[in-house]
Amino acid sequence: MQVDVAIIGSGIGGLCAAALLSHSGYKVLVVEKLPQLGGRCSTIEYKGFKIPHVAQEQPLHGVTASIFQEVGAEFELAEQPPIVYRIKGKDYELPRKGGLAFLLSQICRDEAESNRISTALRRARTWEIPSSSVSFRDWLLQFTDNELVIGLFQNVFCVLLMHVIHEVSAKDVMGFFNFGMREWSDAARPLRGNLALMESLAKVIRGRGSGIWTRSPVKQILLADGVVKGIVVDKEGDEIEVTTKVVISDAGPKETVRLVGEENLDKGYLKELKENLHYGSQMLIAFASDRPLLEYPGGLGLLGARRVVTISTISLTCPELSPPGKYMLTAQCQPRSEFAPLNPTEEVEAAIEDLREHVPGFDKYAEVLNTSCFFNEDWPGYRNLAGYYPPQKTPIENLYNVGDGVAPFGQCGTPGAALTARMVTEDVKGRIKPGEA
After folding, report:
1. Cβ atoms of 228 and 4 closer than 8 Å
2. Dihedral through CA 369, CA 373, CA 378, CA 381, nearest 10?
3. Angle at 59 between CA 85 and CA 82, to 5 degrees
4. pLDDT at residue 277 in the model
5. What is the distance between the alpha carbons of residues 82 and 63, in angstroms, rounded to a whole number?
6. Cα–Cα distance measured from residue 42 to residue 195, given in angstroms and rounded to the nearest whole number
7. Confidence of residue 233 (pLDDT cuts 50, 70, 90)
8. CA diameter of the chain
9. Structural domains in the chain?
10. CB within 8 A of 398, min separation 6: which ones?
11. Contact 311, 300 (CB under 8 A)
12. Which residue, of 37, 58, 204, 351, is most buried by count of CB atoms within 10 Å of its CB?
C-alpha cells in the first residue's frame, strides 16, 4: 500500500494534520492502536453519559477553530459561562473580561499590593519575560507573600499547564500567559463531546479519499539511508507495510524513538529527550446525580484545596452529554508534585475529601462514574511539561512529531497540539507535492 503521508495516532494533533493534508489533496493514512479516535481528546461512554477524557474544554477561537473551519469540519461548542471562584468560603463570579484583575482586587491586602503585582505582570508581558532560573512561585514572592494570591496563580496555571508553580519556571509561566492563554479567554465545551469533534475531522479525512484504521498499532517505522520510507502496521493480525515519503507521529516523542530505533537517531537528540522530557500528571473524576449539586453553569474554581482545582458542571451547558434527568460534573485534580513518586490511592482519596467539603450532598447524592489517573508516560495528562520544547522535526528526514509533547514555547494542551499540526503540515507542503510519494 502506498500513500503520501502516514500518520501514527489519532489525537487532535494527528487528526488536524490529516485533515489539513487531505484537504490539500494529499493521500493520507491515519493508524490508531485504540478502538476509537481522539486519544486523550476523546469520550468515555458509560451508563448513557459521555465523559470527557482529559480535555474538557476547547478555545472558542484560535488555531483549533481555524483548522476546523478551513477543512470544513463541524466545530460545535457551547460557550462556557464565567467560572466562579471560592476563596475562604466566599464565592466570586468572574466578569467575562479582566477576571484575573478582578480577583486580585478582591484578595490583595491593599491597593499597593495589587499595583505591585499588576505592574510586574504587565512588565513581564510587554517588556522583558522573567528568567528560567527561578520558579514562578519564587518570582511572585518578590512582590507579595499573600498566600491567597499565590493560591490563585497556583489554581490558574494548574488548570492549563498541569504544573505546580514551585516546579515551573517564571519564564515558562509568563510565556504561556503572554501567548497560549489568550485563546482560553473564550473557553467552550464540546456540545456532543470530544469524540464528536474528532469524528467530524475523520469525516473530512475520509471524504477526501484518505483512510483511517483503528485497532491498528504501528510495529515499526521504516528507513532507507536515514530517510523515512514507510511503516509496518498490525491490522487485525496482519502485518501490512505502508510505503510513504512522510511519517507524522502523534504518539509522543519517546514512542517515536522506540518505533524508529535509537540506533538510527542522533545521540544529542536522544540525550536531550531523556534528560528533559517529562510527562505531566492529572486526575479527572466524573460524578453524577439526579439533581444539580452545584448551580454554577461555568463551574467552580477552588483555592487552597487538597487536589481539586476546578469542578465543571458540564450538564448545565451541555445536557446532551447526560441521560435525561441526570447531571454530570467533572473535577480536575492536580497532584502536589510532578516529579515525586505518586500514590494513586492517596491522590484520589484527597480529591474525594475536597468534593465532600465543597459539593453539598456529595456523599448522599453523587455517584462516581469514572476516575482517570494520568500518571504515567504511556497515558499522561500531557506528554511534556513546560520547560523543554523539542522540535517537531526529528533527526530522520521526513519524520515529524506532532501533539502536546512538542508544543512550542508558550503553548500547551489541545491548542498547542493543533498548532504543531499546522506547523508540520506547512513544512510538508513545502517539501513534497501530492502524489510524489
Report:
1. no
2. 100
3. 25
4. 94
5. 22
6. 5
7. very high
8. 69
9. 5-43+57-76+192-277+385-431 (3.50.50.60), 97-185 (1.10.405)
10. 227, 228, 245, 246, 247, 431
11. yes
12. 58
For the segment 221-226, the average pLDDT, to the nearest whole number, is 96
Q: Which three cell numbers stand for residue 435?
A: 502524489
Three-state secondary structure readout of the chain: CECCEEEECCCHHHHHHHHHHHHCCCCEEEECCCCCCCCCEEEEEECCEEEEEECCCEECCCHHHHHHHHHCCCCCEEECCCCEEEECCEEEECCCCCHHHHHHHHHCCCHHHHHHHHHHHHHHHHCCCCCCCCEHHHHHCCCCCCHHHHHHHHHHHHHHHCCCCCCCEHHHHHHHHHCHHHHHHHEEEECCCHHHHHHHHHHHHHHCCCEEECCCCEEEEEEECCEEEEEEEEECCEEEEEECCEEEECCCHHHHHHHHCHHHCCHHHHHHHHHHCCCECEEEEEEEECCCCCCCCCCEEECCCCCEEEEECHHHCCHHHCCCCCEEEEEEECCCCCCCCCCHHHHHHHHHHHHHHHCCCHHHHCEEEEEEEECCCCCCCECCCCCCCCCCECCCECEEECCHHHCCCCCCHHHHHHHHHHHHHHHHHHHCCCCCC
CA distance 216 to 10: 11
Contact, 148 vs 103, CB < 8 A?
Answer: no
Q: Give the type of residue at 66.
A: S
Phi-psi region of 9 (alpha: psi -120 to 50; beta: other; left: phi over 0): left
Give the pLDDT band of residue 395 (cuts 50, 70, 90). Answer: very high
Whether this model's pTM surpasses 0.90: yes
